[in-house]
Amino acid sequence: MIENLDLSMVDWARAQFALTALYHWIFVPLTLGLTWLLAFYHSLYYRTGNEEWKRLTKFWMKLFAINFAIGVATGIILEFEFGTNWSNYSWMVGDIFGAPLAIEGLFAFFLEATFFAVMFFGWNRVSKKFHLVSTWMVAIGSNLSAVWILVANAWMQHPVGQEFNPESARFEMQSFSEVVFSPVAISKFTHTTSSSMLLASFFVISVSSWFLLRGRHKLMARRSILVAAVFALFSSVFVAFTGDEAAYEVAQNQPMKLAACEGLYVGENGTELVAVGMLNPGKEVGDDQDPFLFKLAVPGMLSLLANHSADSFVPGMQDLLDGNPQENVVGVTERMKKGKVALGALADFKEARKQDDKPAADAALVIFDQNMEHMGYGHLTDPKDAIPPLALTFYSFHLMVMLGGLFPLVAVVFLFLAWKDMLSRFRLVLFGGVIMYFLSMIAHWLGWIVAEVGRQPWAIQDLLPVTVARTNLTAGTVQTTFFMFLALFTILLIAEIRIMLKQISIGPEEG
Amino acid sequence: MVRKVLCFYREGFREMTLGRTLWVVIAVKLVVMFGILKLFFFPDFLGTRFDNDADRAEYVLEQISSPNLNSNPNEERDLND
Protein backbone atom coordinates (compact mmCIF):
# COMPACT_ATOMS: atom_id res chain seq x y z
CA MET A 1 0.00 0.00 0.00
CA ILE A 2 2.63 2.50 1.11
CA GLU A 3 4.61 2.32 -2.14
CA ASN A 4 1.47 3.22 -4.08
CA LEU A 5 0.88 6.40 -2.11
CA ASP A 6 1.52 9.69 -3.78
CA LEU A 7 4.32 11.17 -1.72
CA SER A 8 2.84 14.63 -1.53
CA MET A 9 2.18 16.32 1.79
CA VAL A 10 -1.58 16.20 1.46
CA ASP A 11 -1.62 12.46 0.84
CA TRP A 12 0.70 11.81 3.78
CA ALA A 13 -1.47 14.02 5.98
CA ARG A 14 -4.56 12.13 4.83
CA ALA A 15 -2.87 8.79 5.39
CA GLN A 16 -1.83 9.90 8.86
CA PHE A 17 -5.33 11.06 9.69
CA ALA A 18 -6.80 7.80 8.38
CA LEU A 19 -4.29 5.77 10.38
CA THR A 20 -5.02 7.68 13.58
CA ALA A 21 -8.78 7.58 13.10
CA LEU A 22 -8.88 3.85 12.30
CA TYR A 23 -6.71 2.95 15.29
CA HIS A 24 -8.78 5.26 17.52
CA TRP A 25 -11.89 3.52 16.23
CA ILE A 26 -10.67 0.15 17.48
CA PHE A 27 -11.38 1.35 21.01
CA VAL A 28 -14.33 3.72 20.69
CA PRO A 29 -17.19 1.50 19.49
CA LEU A 30 -16.40 -1.19 22.03
CA THR A 31 -16.46 1.41 24.81
CA LEU A 32 -19.74 2.89 23.56
CA GLY A 33 -21.49 -0.42 22.99
CA LEU A 34 -20.23 -2.41 25.94
CA THR A 35 -21.59 0.15 28.41
CA TRP A 36 -25.17 -0.83 27.43
CA LEU A 37 -24.46 -4.52 27.98
CA LEU A 38 -22.82 -3.75 31.34
CA ALA A 39 -25.88 -1.76 32.37
CA PHE A 40 -28.16 -4.61 31.37
CA TYR A 41 -26.09 -7.32 33.10
CA HIS A 42 -25.86 -5.12 36.19
CA SER A 43 -29.66 -4.63 36.12
CA LEU A 44 -30.16 -8.39 36.04
CA TYR A 45 -27.97 -8.72 39.12
CA TYR A 46 -29.89 -5.91 40.83
CA ARG A 47 -33.26 -7.56 40.03
CA THR A 48 -32.34 -11.16 40.88
CA GLY A 49 -29.62 -10.77 43.51
CA ASN A 50 -28.01 -13.80 41.81
CA GLU A 51 -24.22 -13.72 42.41
CA GLU A 52 -23.58 -15.31 39.01
CA TRP A 53 -24.88 -12.14 37.32
CA LYS A 54 -22.57 -10.10 39.56
CA ARG A 55 -19.52 -12.18 38.57
CA LEU A 56 -20.53 -11.87 34.96
CA THR A 57 -20.99 -8.10 35.20
CA LYS A 58 -17.63 -7.65 36.94
CA PHE A 59 -15.87 -9.73 34.31
CA TRP A 60 -17.19 -7.70 31.36
CA MET A 61 -16.56 -4.51 33.36
CA LYS A 62 -12.91 -5.52 33.65
CA LEU A 63 -12.58 -5.99 29.88
CA PHE A 64 -14.39 -2.68 29.40
CA ALA A 65 -11.86 -1.00 31.71
CA ILE A 66 -8.91 -2.35 29.71
CA ASN A 67 -10.36 -1.13 26.44
CA PHE A 68 -11.26 2.24 27.93
CA ALA A 69 -7.82 2.77 29.52
CA ILE A 70 -5.88 1.89 26.38
CA GLY A 71 -8.16 3.89 24.11
CA VAL A 72 -8.68 6.99 26.23
CA ALA A 73 -7.19 10.15 24.72
CA THR A 74 -6.12 8.47 21.47
CA GLY A 75 -8.57 10.80 19.74
CA ILE A 76 -6.68 13.86 21.00
CA ILE A 77 -3.99 13.07 18.43
CA LEU A 78 -6.52 13.92 15.74
CA GLU A 79 -6.73 17.40 17.25
CA PHE A 80 -2.92 17.69 17.17
CA GLU A 81 -3.07 16.89 13.47
CA PHE A 82 -5.70 19.55 12.82
CA GLY A 83 -3.46 22.31 14.17
CA THR A 84 -0.29 21.15 12.41
CA ASN A 85 -1.28 19.45 9.15
CA TRP A 86 -4.65 21.06 8.52
CA SER A 87 -4.15 24.58 9.79
CA ASN A 88 -6.26 26.35 7.13
CA TYR A 89 -9.16 24.03 7.85
CA SER A 90 -8.62 24.27 11.57
CA TRP A 91 -8.73 28.05 11.45
CA MET A 92 -11.81 28.14 9.24
CA VAL A 93 -13.95 25.80 11.34
CA GLY A 94 -12.80 26.90 14.81
CA ASP A 95 -16.00 28.81 15.45
CA ILE A 96 -18.23 25.88 14.46
CA PHE A 97 -16.36 23.11 16.27
CA GLY A 98 -15.24 25.03 19.35
CA ALA A 99 -18.53 24.75 21.24
CA PRO A 100 -19.38 21.11 20.47
CA LEU A 101 -15.87 19.85 21.22
CA ALA A 102 -15.63 21.89 24.43
CA ILE A 103 -18.95 20.41 25.57
CA GLU A 104 -17.65 16.94 24.75
CA GLY A 105 -14.47 17.52 26.77
CA LEU A 106 -16.31 18.83 29.83
CA PHE A 107 -18.97 16.16 29.61
CA ALA A 108 -16.42 13.37 29.35
CA PHE A 109 -14.37 14.75 32.24
CA PHE A 110 -17.28 14.97 34.68
CA LEU A 111 -18.67 11.63 33.59
CA GLU A 112 -15.35 9.87 34.04
CA ALA A 113 -14.57 11.56 37.35
CA THR A 114 -17.90 10.64 38.89
CA PHE A 115 -19.94 7.80 37.44
CA PHE A 116 -17.01 5.79 36.06
CA ALA A 117 -15.43 5.79 39.51
CA VAL A 118 -18.67 4.73 41.20
CA MET A 119 -19.21 2.00 38.61
CA PHE A 120 -15.75 0.50 39.15
CA PHE A 121 -15.24 1.16 42.87
CA GLY A 122 -18.86 1.01 44.04
CA TRP A 123 -19.27 -2.73 44.74
CA ASN A 124 -20.32 -2.99 48.43
CA ARG A 125 -19.36 0.67 48.98
CA VAL A 126 -22.45 2.51 47.75
CA SER A 127 -26.09 1.45 47.76
CA LYS A 128 -26.99 -1.13 45.11
CA LYS A 129 -29.45 1.29 43.56
CA PHE A 130 -26.96 4.16 43.25
CA HIS A 131 -24.38 1.74 41.89
CA LEU A 132 -26.78 0.56 39.20
CA VAL A 133 -27.78 4.14 38.36
CA SER A 134 -24.08 4.96 37.93
CA THR A 135 -23.59 2.10 35.47
CA TRP A 136 -26.56 3.32 33.45
CA MET A 137 -25.22 6.89 33.59
CA VAL A 138 -21.91 5.68 32.17
CA ALA A 139 -23.79 4.08 29.27
CA ILE A 140 -25.99 7.10 28.61
CA GLY A 141 -23.20 9.64 29.18
CA SER A 142 -20.59 7.86 27.05
CA ASN A 143 -22.95 7.64 24.14
CA LEU A 144 -24.12 11.23 24.55
CA SER A 145 -20.54 12.47 24.64
CA ALA A 146 -20.10 10.88 21.21
CA VAL A 147 -22.82 13.20 19.89
CA TRP A 148 -20.50 16.17 19.64
CA ILE A 149 -17.72 14.69 17.58
CA LEU A 150 -20.30 13.13 15.28
CA VAL A 151 -22.04 16.51 14.95
CA ALA A 152 -18.68 17.97 13.90
CA ASN A 153 -18.16 15.22 11.34
CA ALA A 154 -21.72 15.59 10.04
CA TRP A 155 -21.18 19.31 9.58
CA MET A 156 -18.23 18.63 7.30
CA GLN A 157 -20.45 16.36 5.19
CA HIS A 158 -23.34 18.83 5.18
CA PRO A 159 -22.30 22.31 6.36
CA VAL A 160 -25.51 23.90 7.65
CA GLY A 161 -26.23 26.68 10.14
CA GLN A 162 -23.13 28.66 9.15
CA GLU A 163 -22.02 31.71 7.23
CA PHE A 164 -18.54 32.37 5.87
CA ASN A 165 -17.03 35.62 7.09
CA PRO A 166 -14.40 36.88 4.62
CA GLU A 167 -13.07 39.34 7.23
CA SER A 168 -11.98 36.58 9.58
CA ALA A 169 -11.71 33.80 6.96
CA ARG A 170 -13.90 31.67 9.21
CA PHE A 171 -17.17 29.85 9.04
CA GLU A 172 -19.30 31.35 11.78
CA MET A 173 -22.16 29.51 13.45
CA GLN A 174 -25.54 31.12 12.75
CA SER A 175 -27.73 28.45 14.30
CA PHE A 176 -26.54 26.00 16.96
CA SER A 177 -29.73 23.95 16.64
CA GLU A 178 -29.35 23.65 12.85
CA VAL A 179 -25.83 22.31 13.34
CA VAL A 180 -26.74 19.90 16.16
CA PHE A 181 -30.06 18.69 14.77
CA SER A 182 -28.98 18.46 11.17
CA PRO A 183 -30.52 15.28 9.66
CA VAL A 184 -27.02 14.14 8.71
CA ALA A 185 -25.86 14.51 12.34
CA ILE A 186 -28.88 12.59 13.62
CA SER A 187 -28.45 9.72 11.19
CA LYS A 188 -24.70 9.63 11.86
CA PHE A 189 -25.27 9.45 15.62
CA THR A 190 -27.96 6.77 15.47
CA HIS A 191 -26.03 4.67 12.94
CA THR A 192 -22.75 4.94 14.85
CA THR A 193 -24.13 4.20 18.31
CA SER A 194 -26.32 1.32 17.15
CA SER A 195 -23.46 -0.25 15.19
CA SER A 196 -21.26 0.17 18.28
CA MET A 197 -23.83 -1.75 20.29
CA LEU A 198 -23.77 -4.44 17.62
CA LEU A 199 -19.97 -4.62 17.72
CA ALA A 200 -19.93 -4.90 21.51
CA SER A 201 -22.57 -7.66 21.39
CA PHE A 202 -20.35 -9.61 19.02
CA PHE A 203 -17.36 -8.96 21.27
CA VAL A 204 -19.26 -10.68 24.10
CA ILE A 205 -20.33 -13.49 21.76
CA SER A 206 -16.71 -13.92 20.55
CA VAL A 207 -15.19 -14.18 24.02
CA SER A 208 -18.03 -16.37 25.30
CA SER A 209 -17.76 -18.66 22.27
CA TRP A 210 -14.07 -19.09 23.07
CA PHE A 211 -14.94 -20.06 26.65
CA LEU A 212 -17.45 -22.63 25.38
CA LEU A 213 -14.94 -24.05 22.92
CA ARG A 214 -12.51 -24.48 25.82
CA GLY A 215 -15.27 -25.89 28.04
CA ARG A 216 -14.76 -23.15 30.66
CA HIS A 217 -17.23 -20.86 32.50
CA LYS A 218 -20.11 -22.45 30.61
CA LEU A 219 -22.96 -20.90 32.60
CA MET A 220 -21.47 -17.41 32.42
CA ALA A 221 -20.75 -17.77 28.70
CA ARG A 222 -24.28 -18.99 27.93
CA ARG A 223 -25.92 -16.21 29.95
CA SER A 224 -23.64 -13.63 28.37
CA ILE A 225 -24.49 -14.88 24.89
CA LEU A 226 -28.22 -14.91 25.58
CA VAL A 227 -28.27 -11.22 26.42
CA ALA A 228 -25.68 -10.27 23.78
CA ALA A 229 -27.55 -12.13 21.02
CA VAL A 230 -30.76 -10.23 21.83
CA PHE A 231 -28.78 -6.98 21.75
CA ALA A 232 -27.10 -8.02 18.49
CA LEU A 233 -30.42 -8.87 16.87
CA PHE A 234 -32.15 -5.61 17.80
CA SER A 235 -29.13 -3.44 17.09
CA SER A 236 -28.46 -5.08 13.70
CA VAL A 237 -32.04 -4.36 12.61
CA PHE A 238 -31.72 -0.80 13.90
CA VAL A 239 -28.37 -0.44 12.08
CA ALA A 240 -30.12 -1.42 8.84
CA PHE A 241 -32.82 1.24 9.36
CA THR A 242 -30.33 3.96 10.31
CA GLY A 243 -28.10 2.91 7.40
CA ASP A 244 -31.05 3.41 5.08
CA GLU A 245 -31.58 6.88 6.55
CA ALA A 246 -27.86 7.65 6.15
CA ALA A 247 -28.03 6.58 2.48
CA TYR A 248 -31.01 8.88 1.95
CA GLU A 249 -29.07 11.81 3.44
CA VAL A 250 -26.06 11.01 1.24
CA ALA A 251 -28.32 10.97 -1.81
CA GLN A 252 -29.73 14.39 -0.92
CA ASN A 253 -26.50 16.11 0.11
CA GLN A 254 -23.59 14.19 -1.43
CA PRO A 255 -24.88 12.72 -4.70
CA MET A 256 -21.34 12.12 -6.02
CA LYS A 257 -20.61 9.90 -3.01
CA LEU A 258 -23.77 7.88 -3.68
CA ALA A 259 -22.85 7.53 -7.37
CA ALA A 260 -19.38 6.27 -6.35
CA CYS A 261 -20.83 3.85 -3.78
CA GLU A 262 -22.97 2.32 -6.52
CA GLY A 263 -20.60 2.71 -9.49
CA LEU A 264 -23.34 4.73 -11.18
CA TYR A 265 -21.98 6.55 -14.24
CA VAL A 266 -25.15 7.66 -16.01
CA GLY A 267 -28.27 8.46 -14.06
CA GLU A 268 -31.76 7.32 -14.96
CA ASN A 269 -35.27 7.01 -13.61
CA GLY A 270 -35.93 3.82 -11.66
CA THR A 271 -32.22 3.22 -11.03
CA GLU A 272 -31.19 -0.30 -10.09
CA LEU A 273 -29.24 -1.12 -6.94
CA VAL A 274 -26.12 -3.20 -7.54
CA ALA A 275 -26.25 -5.87 -4.84
CA VAL A 276 -23.02 -7.59 -5.92
CA GLY A 277 -20.69 -6.53 -8.69
CA MET A 278 -17.17 -6.17 -10.00
CA LEU A 279 -16.19 -2.80 -11.44
CA ASN A 280 -14.64 -2.58 -14.88
CA PRO A 281 -11.21 -1.05 -14.07
CA GLY A 282 -10.83 0.29 -17.65
CA LYS A 283 -14.05 2.29 -17.51
CA GLU A 284 -13.78 6.09 -17.70
CA VAL A 285 -16.48 8.71 -17.31
CA GLY A 286 -17.81 9.54 -20.78
CA ASP A 287 -16.74 6.38 -22.63
CA ASP A 288 -19.18 3.69 -23.71
CA GLN A 289 -17.67 0.73 -21.85
CA ASP A 290 -19.81 -1.28 -19.45
CA PRO A 291 -19.10 -0.06 -15.87
CA PHE A 292 -19.22 -3.65 -14.53
CA LEU A 293 -17.52 -6.90 -15.44
CA PHE A 294 -20.49 -8.58 -13.78
CA LYS A 295 -23.28 -7.55 -11.45
CA LEU A 296 -26.44 -8.67 -9.71
CA ALA A 297 -28.87 -5.77 -9.44
CA VAL A 298 -32.32 -5.04 -8.05
CA PRO A 299 -34.39 -2.84 -10.42
CA GLY A 300 -35.63 0.49 -9.03
CA MET A 301 -34.13 -0.12 -5.61
CA LEU A 302 -31.50 2.66 -5.69
CA SER A 303 -34.18 5.20 -6.63
CA LEU A 304 -36.28 3.94 -3.75
CA LEU A 305 -33.39 4.20 -1.27
CA ALA A 306 -32.18 7.57 -2.58
CA ASN A 307 -35.47 9.38 -2.98
CA HIS A 308 -38.08 7.05 -1.44
CA SER A 309 -39.64 6.71 -4.87
CA ALA A 310 -38.91 3.67 -7.09
CA ASP A 311 -39.14 5.53 -10.42
CA SER A 312 -37.30 8.71 -9.41
CA PHE A 313 -34.11 9.98 -11.06
CA VAL A 314 -30.72 9.32 -9.42
CA PRO A 315 -27.84 11.25 -11.01
CA GLY A 316 -24.70 9.39 -12.06
CA MET A 317 -21.15 10.70 -12.15
CA GLN A 318 -21.57 11.84 -15.76
CA ASP A 319 -24.68 13.91 -14.86
CA LEU A 320 -22.92 15.39 -11.86
CA LEU A 321 -19.86 16.39 -13.89
CA ASP A 322 -21.60 17.78 -16.99
CA GLY A 323 -24.89 18.81 -15.43
CA ASN A 324 -28.37 17.68 -16.40
CA PRO A 325 -30.73 20.66 -16.83
CA GLN A 326 -33.72 18.38 -17.36
CA GLU A 327 -33.24 16.96 -13.85
CA ASN A 328 -32.05 20.25 -12.30
CA VAL A 329 -28.52 18.95 -11.78
CA VAL A 330 -25.86 21.70 -11.89
CA GLY A 331 -22.64 20.13 -13.13
CA VAL A 332 -19.17 20.37 -11.64
CA THR A 333 -17.94 22.17 -14.76
CA GLU A 334 -20.48 24.94 -14.19
CA ARG A 335 -19.77 25.04 -10.47
CA MET A 336 -16.02 25.36 -11.15
CA LYS A 337 -16.71 28.51 -13.14
CA LYS A 338 -18.82 29.96 -10.35
CA GLY A 339 -16.28 28.85 -7.77
CA LYS A 340 -13.52 30.71 -9.59
CA VAL A 341 -15.72 33.82 -9.63
CA ALA A 342 -16.17 33.42 -5.85
CA LEU A 343 -12.42 33.07 -5.28
CA GLY A 344 -11.70 36.02 -7.57
CA ALA A 345 -14.19 38.11 -5.58
CA LEU A 346 -12.53 36.99 -2.37
CA ALA A 347 -9.12 38.06 -3.70
CA ASP A 348 -10.62 41.39 -4.82
CA PHE A 349 -12.15 41.87 -1.39
CA LYS A 350 -8.80 41.21 0.25
CA GLU A 351 -7.03 43.70 -2.02
CA ALA A 352 -9.74 46.36 -1.62
CA ARG A 353 -9.56 46.00 2.14
CA LYS A 354 -5.79 46.46 2.01
CA GLN A 355 -6.30 49.65 -0.05
CA ASP A 356 -9.00 50.72 2.40
CA ASP A 357 -11.41 50.93 -0.55
CA LYS A 358 -14.76 50.19 1.10
CA PRO A 359 -17.00 50.49 -2.02
CA ALA A 360 -14.78 48.06 -3.93
CA ALA A 361 -14.71 45.68 -0.96
CA ASP A 362 -18.53 45.79 -0.68
CA ALA A 363 -18.92 45.19 -4.42
CA ALA A 364 -16.57 42.19 -4.21
CA LEU A 365 -18.57 40.81 -1.31
CA VAL A 366 -21.82 40.99 -3.28
CA ILE A 367 -20.26 38.87 -6.04
CA PHE A 368 -18.74 36.51 -3.47
CA ASP A 369 -22.07 35.98 -1.70
CA GLN A 370 -23.77 35.14 -5.00
CA ASN A 371 -21.24 32.40 -5.69
CA MET A 372 -20.14 31.36 -2.22
CA GLU A 373 -21.89 27.96 -2.28
CA HIS A 374 -19.57 26.95 -5.15
CA MET A 375 -16.40 28.31 -3.51
CA GLY A 376 -14.61 24.98 -3.15
CA TYR A 377 -15.06 24.10 -6.82
CA GLY A 378 -12.90 27.10 -7.75
CA HIS A 379 -9.88 25.17 -6.49
CA LEU A 380 -10.44 22.15 -8.72
CA THR A 381 -8.32 21.99 -11.87
CA ASP A 382 -10.24 19.17 -13.59
CA PRO A 383 -13.94 18.33 -13.15
CA LYS A 384 -12.97 14.68 -12.59
CA ASP A 385 -11.21 15.81 -9.39
CA ALA A 386 -14.72 15.87 -7.88
CA ILE A 387 -15.02 12.06 -8.16
CA PRO A 388 -13.84 10.19 -5.05
CA PRO A 389 -11.60 7.09 -5.32
CA LEU A 390 -14.16 4.85 -6.99
CA ALA A 391 -13.04 1.28 -6.32
CA LEU A 392 -12.27 1.88 -2.63
CA THR A 393 -15.64 3.57 -2.07
CA PHE A 394 -17.63 1.00 -4.07
CA TYR A 395 -16.12 -2.15 -2.57
CA SER A 396 -16.05 -0.76 0.99
CA PHE A 397 -19.74 0.12 0.73
CA HIS A 398 -20.78 -3.24 -0.68
CA LEU A 399 -18.70 -5.29 1.72
CA MET A 400 -20.10 -3.29 4.65
CA VAL A 401 -23.68 -3.89 3.45
CA MET A 402 -23.00 -7.63 2.99
CA LEU A 403 -21.62 -7.91 6.51
CA GLY A 404 -24.60 -5.90 7.74
CA GLY A 405 -26.87 -8.52 6.15
CA LEU A 406 -24.97 -11.37 7.82
CA PHE A 407 -25.09 -9.98 11.37
CA PRO A 408 -28.82 -10.42 12.17
CA LEU A 409 -28.70 -14.01 10.87
CA VAL A 410 -25.77 -14.81 13.15
CA ALA A 411 -27.58 -13.17 16.07
CA VAL A 412 -30.67 -15.33 15.47
CA VAL A 413 -28.57 -18.52 15.35
CA PHE A 414 -26.78 -17.70 18.61
CA LEU A 415 -29.99 -16.64 20.31
CA PHE A 416 -31.74 -19.88 19.35
CA LEU A 417 -28.84 -22.16 20.31
CA ALA A 418 -28.19 -20.34 23.59
CA TRP A 419 -31.90 -20.41 24.45
CA LYS A 420 -32.03 -24.17 23.81
CA ASP A 421 -28.68 -24.65 25.59
CA MET A 422 -27.28 -26.38 22.52
CA LEU A 423 -24.31 -24.13 21.75
CA SER A 424 -21.61 -26.49 23.01
CA ARG A 425 -22.77 -29.12 20.48
CA PHE A 426 -22.12 -26.86 17.49
CA ARG A 427 -18.38 -26.21 17.53
CA LEU A 428 -18.36 -24.79 14.02
CA VAL A 429 -20.90 -22.15 15.10
CA LEU A 430 -18.69 -21.33 18.09
CA PHE A 431 -15.63 -20.94 15.83
CA GLY A 432 -17.76 -18.59 13.73
CA GLY A 433 -18.75 -16.76 16.92
CA VAL A 434 -15.11 -16.14 17.81
CA ILE A 435 -14.49 -14.22 14.57
CA MET A 436 -17.71 -12.19 14.70
CA TYR A 437 -16.10 -9.38 16.69
CA PHE A 438 -13.41 -8.98 14.05
CA LEU A 439 -15.96 -8.99 11.23
CA SER A 440 -18.01 -6.31 12.94
CA MET A 441 -14.85 -4.23 13.48
CA ILE A 442 -14.09 -4.54 9.75
CA ALA A 443 -17.67 -3.42 9.00
CA HIS A 444 -17.10 -0.34 11.18
CA TRP A 445 -13.88 0.54 9.39
CA LEU A 446 -15.51 0.04 6.00
CA GLY A 447 -18.30 2.38 7.09
CA TRP A 448 -15.84 5.12 7.92
CA ILE A 449 -13.97 4.55 4.66
CA VAL A 450 -17.25 5.03 2.77
CA ALA A 451 -18.03 8.16 4.79
CA GLU A 452 -14.59 9.77 4.51
CA VAL A 453 -13.05 8.49 1.27
CA GLY A 454 -16.44 8.80 -0.41
CA ARG A 455 -16.59 12.53 0.29
CA GLN A 456 -13.24 13.30 -1.30
CA PRO A 457 -11.99 15.74 -2.51
CA TRP A 458 -13.81 17.70 0.18
CA ALA A 459 -12.70 18.56 3.69
CA ILE A 460 -15.93 20.58 3.90
CA GLN A 461 -18.47 19.48 1.33
CA ASP A 462 -18.43 21.80 -1.74
CA LEU A 463 -16.65 24.59 0.16
CA LEU A 464 -13.12 23.46 0.97
CA PRO A 465 -11.10 20.75 -0.77
CA VAL A 466 -8.45 18.86 1.21
CA THR A 467 -5.68 20.37 -0.93
CA VAL A 468 -6.59 23.80 0.43
CA ALA A 469 -7.47 22.67 3.95
CA ARG A 470 -3.92 21.52 4.59
CA THR A 471 -0.88 23.38 5.88
CA ASN A 472 1.96 24.17 3.50
CA LEU A 473 4.51 21.78 4.93
CA THR A 474 6.94 19.38 3.34
CA ALA A 475 5.83 15.77 3.01
CA GLY A 476 8.89 14.68 5.00
CA THR A 477 7.63 16.40 8.15
CA VAL A 478 4.39 14.45 8.02
CA GLN A 479 6.09 11.17 7.08
CA THR A 480 8.13 11.27 10.28
CA THR A 481 5.10 11.65 12.50
CA PHE A 482 3.16 9.11 10.44
CA PHE A 483 5.64 6.40 11.35
CA MET A 484 5.84 7.61 14.96
CA PHE A 485 2.08 7.20 15.24
CA LEU A 486 2.23 3.85 13.56
CA ALA A 487 4.72 2.74 16.22
CA LEU A 488 2.80 4.31 19.14
CA PHE A 489 -0.55 2.88 18.15
CA THR A 490 0.88 -0.53 17.38
CA ILE A 491 2.45 -0.63 20.85
CA LEU A 492 -0.90 0.39 22.38
CA LEU A 493 -2.72 -2.23 20.38
CA ILE A 494 -0.26 -4.93 21.43
CA ALA A 495 -0.66 -3.78 25.06
CA GLU A 496 -4.45 -3.98 24.71
CA ILE A 497 -4.38 -7.42 23.16
CA ARG A 498 -1.92 -8.81 25.73
CA ILE A 499 -3.74 -7.42 28.77
CA MET A 500 -7.13 -8.34 27.34
CA LEU A 501 -6.07 -11.91 26.48
CA LYS A 502 -4.53 -12.36 29.91
CA GLN A 503 -7.74 -11.28 31.64
CA ILE A 504 -9.90 -13.40 29.33
CA SER A 505 -7.69 -16.36 30.04
CA ILE A 506 -8.01 -15.76 33.80
CA GLY A 507 -11.78 -15.49 33.34
CA PRO A 508 -14.31 -14.23 35.88
CA GLU A 509 -13.57 -14.27 39.61
CA GLU A 510 -14.55 -17.54 41.20
CA GLY A 511 -17.66 -17.22 43.33
CA MET B 1 -19.37 14.33 53.00
CA VAL B 2 -16.16 15.47 51.30
CA ARG B 3 -14.16 13.11 53.51
CA LYS B 4 -16.48 10.23 52.55
CA VAL B 5 -15.99 10.95 48.86
CA LEU B 6 -12.20 11.19 49.24
CA CYS B 7 -12.19 7.98 51.24
CA PHE B 8 -14.26 6.28 48.51
CA TYR B 9 -11.75 7.23 45.83
CA ARG B 10 -8.70 6.41 48.01
CA GLU B 11 -9.95 2.94 48.89
CA GLY B 12 -11.02 2.32 45.32
CA PHE B 13 -7.58 3.15 43.95
CA ARG B 14 -5.84 1.26 46.77
CA GLU B 15 -7.70 -1.97 46.06
CA MET B 16 -7.08 -1.88 42.33
CA THR B 17 -5.02 -4.73 40.93
CA LEU B 18 -5.40 -4.68 37.16
CA GLY B 19 -6.23 -0.99 37.46
CA ARG B 20 -2.65 -0.13 38.46
CA THR B 21 -1.29 -1.58 35.22
CA LEU B 22 -3.89 0.39 33.32
CA TRP B 23 -3.01 3.62 35.12
CA VAL B 24 0.64 3.07 34.15
CA VAL B 25 -0.40 2.59 30.52
CA ILE B 26 -2.50 5.77 30.65
CA ALA B 27 0.31 7.77 32.29
CA VAL B 28 2.98 6.65 29.81
CA LYS B 29 0.64 7.32 26.91
CA LEU B 30 -0.19 10.84 28.08
CA VAL B 31 3.48 11.66 28.67
CA VAL B 32 4.40 10.45 25.16
CA MET B 33 1.47 12.28 23.59
CA PHE B 34 1.74 15.62 25.36
CA GLY B 35 5.36 15.63 26.49
CA ILE B 36 6.92 14.47 23.24
CA LEU B 37 4.53 14.43 20.28
CA LYS B 38 2.63 17.65 20.97
CA LEU B 39 5.67 19.53 22.24
CA PHE B 40 8.19 18.64 19.55
CA PHE B 41 6.25 17.43 16.52
CA PHE B 42 2.83 19.05 16.53
CA PRO B 43 3.09 22.80 16.99
CA ASP B 44 0.01 24.84 16.21
CA PHE B 45 1.12 26.09 12.79
CA LEU B 46 -0.82 29.36 12.76
CA GLY B 47 -0.42 29.89 16.49
CA THR B 48 3.37 29.79 16.36
CA ARG B 49 3.88 31.68 13.08
CA PHE B 50 1.64 34.65 13.65
CA ASP B 51 1.25 37.04 16.56
CA ASN B 52 -2.43 37.84 16.27
CA ASP B 53 -5.70 36.63 14.79
CA ALA B 54 -5.77 39.38 12.15
CA ASP B 55 -2.50 38.09 10.66
CA ARG B 56 -3.76 34.51 10.84
CA ALA B 57 -6.98 35.47 9.07
CA GLU B 58 -4.99 37.35 6.42
CA TYR B 59 -2.76 34.34 5.80
CA VAL B 60 -5.67 31.89 5.53
CA LEU B 61 -7.59 34.27 3.27
CA GLU B 62 -4.55 34.42 1.00
CA GLN B 63 -4.40 30.62 0.94
CA ILE B 64 -8.05 30.04 0.15
CA SER B 65 -8.48 32.82 -2.37
CA SER B 66 -5.56 31.70 -4.57
CA PRO B 67 -6.81 28.77 -6.66
CA ASN B 68 -3.39 27.46 -7.69
CA LEU B 69 -1.30 28.25 -4.64
CA ASN B 70 -1.94 24.93 -2.96
CA SER B 71 -1.29 22.78 -5.97
CA ASN B 72 2.25 24.14 -6.35
CA PRO B 73 4.76 21.95 -4.50
CA ASN B 74 7.31 24.77 -4.54
CA GLU B 75 5.10 26.59 -2.08
CA GLU B 76 5.55 23.86 0.50
CA ARG B 77 7.68 24.72 3.44
CA ASP B 78 9.42 22.85 6.14
CA LEU B 79 7.84 23.12 9.57
CA ASN B 80 11.05 24.54 10.97
CA ASP B 81 11.60 27.22 8.31
Briefly say what this structure is.
The complex is a heterodimer of chains A (511) and B (81). By secondary structure, chain A is mainly alpha-helical.
Please provide a written account of the structure.
The complex is a heterodimer of chains A (511) and B (81). Chain A is mainly α and 511 residues long. Chain A contains 17 helices and eight strands. In chain A, 70% of the residues lie in helices and 6% in strands. In chain A, the strands form four sheets. A two-stranded antiparallel sheet of chain A has the order 1-2. A two-stranded antiparallel sheet of chain A has the order 3-6. A two-stranded antiparallel sheet of chain A has the order 4-5. Chain A is globular and about 80 Å long. Residues 1-7 of chain A have low confidence and may be disordered. Chain B folds into two domains: 1-41; 43-72, no CATH class. Chain B contains four helices and no strands. Chain B has helices at 2-14, 18-41, 45-49, 53-64. The relative contact order of chain B is 0.06. Mean pLDDT of chain B is 76; it is low at 69-81. At the A-B interface, helix 2, helix 3, helix 4, helix 12 and helix 17 of A face helix 1, helix 2, helix 3 and helix 4 of B.
